[in-house]
Fold:
Amino acid sequence: MASGNALRDDQIWGHPKGLVFLTFTEIWERFSFYGMRGLLILFMAQELLQPGRIENVAGMDTFRSVVESIFGPLSTQAFASQTFGLYSGFVYFTPVFGGLLADRWLGSRRTVMLGVVLMTAGHFAMVFDASFLLALLLLVLGSGCLKGNIAAQVGHLYPREEEARRTRGFTIFSTGINIGAIFGPLVCGLVAQIYGWHYGFGLAGLMMLVAAAVYFAGMPYFAAETVKPSADQASPHPPLVRADWHMVGLVFLVVLISEFWALVYDQMANTGLLFVSQRVALETPLGMVPVPWFASEDALASVLVVPLLIILWRWQAARGSEPDDLSKIAIGSVIMACAPASLALGDFLAGGGKVAIIWPILAFCFSGSAFMWGWPTLLALVSRRAPARINSTMVACVYLTAFMSGIGSGTIARFYEQMPAWQFFLMNAATVLCGALVIVITAPWLRRRMDALATAAA
Structure:
């Protein structure tokens, strides 16, 4: 890793120039990812998994029998939600192996480029019904190579001791995620509505090629690689000691606690979009609102809230009152609870009729705003606290929250058809509030232990 002084030579707006290229790479990669993701649950539930169409998918009989052997018999909606949950989960599980691949053999740059190739192939495979399951597999493997390693490269741009500046850098980087997530569902959803589902999926594949071009252009500005040396080379980092393993355990505990809000965030992209398509009055004087646009609204809220957060945190920092990382995650959890609560309130007030469009607008605004309080802060915390020898792997492990929340949201979605919608979403709101309470209770102890271990390792 380059030294802190070396990293300061090329800067834009107080941040390393490499952050700009990594952010724009993430914009186009997330355009393709969220563009496809915004179509996926609707495409499966409304068309692909219906009788007469599902038979065209290679391997679907085997896949469904395996899924139902684990989760029991599933309706079309439940099977679509469970498949969506499995995909959403495993796409964030494989980054752990991508981090190991980068740390021990290929390095983060080559691993990222492998991920781009796999994801591009996956997006184009979505164009055909027969290769649907293959497409999901390629996307899962490609995301594993790409996600954690790009995030780790952001962390490598900053000196370890600069917590606030690193957190703001990850906030800017996460803004790139959400810019892509705005336009991905917006454009791909519109293209799919006008020309058909497969054109929307094909457009997502084209954007991965743009991401690759931007990443190549920015390579001179990234931090130096940290790959496992061969037997005749000296290790760039000392082996892990007892204190390092204690820190790893604490980091995993923070990741586990963050699972509460991540679970609800994924549920908004699962049954949240199904609820909008089934229960919300989408007709407006300007025409029918495409359902994937609500996924874009979530991302738009994430982008719009960033300047406010940066101004707020700088104002608080100047007065010595800026919340630490754990406090920011707790605040984000409370805001996240407002998202399903809005859907619950809208459904309750509708009394069996169509839900007013204002309620999902509020819900996805809350979920997007909460994301920016929680996710970049969690990435920054892990990047700063994780031992240098396994830093990429540990940052990749942050995505285990999304793995567990993806699987969990798909499982919980089975209750969506069995409960009144307002009860289902109120249950989700209560879940994330429990998570906020756990953070508030454990934060003082976690903070003391992490600071003590960091001081001992210095």
User: Anything to note?
Assistant: The chain has one domain: 9-226+242-457. The domain at 9-226+242-457 is CATH 1.20.1250.20 (Growth Hormone; Chain: A;). The radius of gyration is 22 Å.
